[in-house]
């Protein structure tokens, strides 16, 4: 009864740009790739949740619209990282199937810069509010 | 890599000693939990702002997020057929995060316009 993995059934999995090339890698590598993609999704989700929490907090404390703009920026950057998760999953899975070297995680510097910019914006706002208010 | 004593069918893929299927299942659960918590947060923001649309969108995202949670039952075994179906589930969970982000950005934009 045991079927050899990928023996005779045609592989119909989507996306074809990934599963149409190369050969099946070790399933553990694919699982690790999936976890990496999920970690990127969670990173984006953290930014989204932070933005939503910030805008909620701004209404509670009756603070200026600057915080809302920062919150909206964080939400959109978070959405971008959710999209990047899919992109990087596809690139990595292709590289695994083709037995190529894994591509560099190009989203990582963007993430670092984005988080630093966000922190500086919020710190600047806090200092400005403390000095001016 | 000997099979566990309670290994059922012959030819089933043996359990991975690195527990990778469990780790992946837990990663899915964390992610889904995060989406649910995020949608609760957004719903609270919507209630605060009195926006029915935001609350409904957040509730829909929270319910839909529970669907891919069943993808990787942590049985400790690689899928018996040897094929992983990741893409559609990844697209779904990432899409939910994008929807959450867009609704949240719209809510914060409305807040900015209301405050101005």
Architecture overview:
The complex is a heterodimer of chains A (about 130) and B (about 120). By secondary structure, chain A is mainly alpha-helical. Chain A has one domain. Chain A has helices spanning about 15-20, 25-60, 65-95, 105-130. In chain A, helix 2 runs antiparallel to helix 3 and helix 3 packs antiparallel against helix 4. The model of chain A has no long low-confidence stretch (mean pLDDT about 90). Chain B has one domain. Residues about 1-10 of chain B have low confidence and may be disordered. Chain B is an all-alpha fold and about 120 residues long. The chains are: A mainly alpha (about 130), B mainly alpha (about 120).
What does the secondary structure layout of this molecule look like, with pairings?
The complex is a heterodimer of chains A (133) and B (116).
Chain A lengths: L15 H4 L7 H35 L3 H33 L9 H26 L1
Chain B lengths: L19 H30 L2 H14 L21 H29 L1
Helix pairs in contact in B: 1-2, 1-3, 2-3
Quaternary state of this entry equals heterodimer
Kindly report the average pLDDT value of chain B: 80
Report the mean per-residue pLDDT of chain A as an integer: 88
Largest sheet of chain B: none
| CA-atom Rg of chain A in angstroms | 21 Å
Percentage of β-strand residues of chain A? under 5%
Structural class based on helices, strands and sheet pairing of chain B: mainly alpha
Rg from alpha-carbon coordinates of chain B? 20 Å
């Amino acid at each position: 009864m045991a079927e050899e993995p990928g023996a005779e059934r045609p592989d119909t999995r989507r996306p074809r740009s990934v599963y149409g090339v190369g050969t099946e890698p070790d399933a553990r590598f694919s699982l690790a790739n999936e976890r990496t993609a999920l970690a990127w999704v969670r990173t984006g989700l953290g930014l989204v949740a932070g933005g939503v929490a910030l805008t909620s907090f701004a209404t509670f404390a009756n603070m200026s619209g600057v915080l809302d703009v920062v919150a909206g920026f964080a939400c959109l950057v978070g959405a971008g990282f959710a999209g990047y998760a899919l992109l990087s999953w596809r690139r990595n899975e292709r590289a695994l199937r083709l037995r190529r070297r894994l591509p560099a995680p190009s989203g990582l510097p963007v993430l670092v810069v984005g988080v630093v910019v966000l922190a500086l914006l919020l710190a600047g706002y806090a200092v400005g509010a403390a000095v001016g208010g | 890599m000997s099979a566990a004593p309670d290994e059922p069918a012959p030819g089933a893929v043996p359990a991975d000693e690195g527990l990778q299927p469990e780790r992946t299942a837990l990663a899915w659960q964390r992610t889904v939990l995060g989406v649910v918590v995020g949608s609760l947060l957004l719903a609270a923001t919507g209630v605060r702002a009195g926006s029915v649309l935001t609350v409904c969108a957040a509730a829909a995202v929270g319910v839909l997020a529970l669907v891919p949670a069943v993808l990787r039952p942590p049985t400790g075994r690689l899928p018996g057929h040897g094929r992983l179906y990741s893409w559609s589930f990844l697209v779904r969970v990432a899409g939910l995060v994008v929807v959450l982000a867009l609704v949240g950005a719209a809510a914060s934009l409305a807040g900015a316009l209301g405050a101005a």
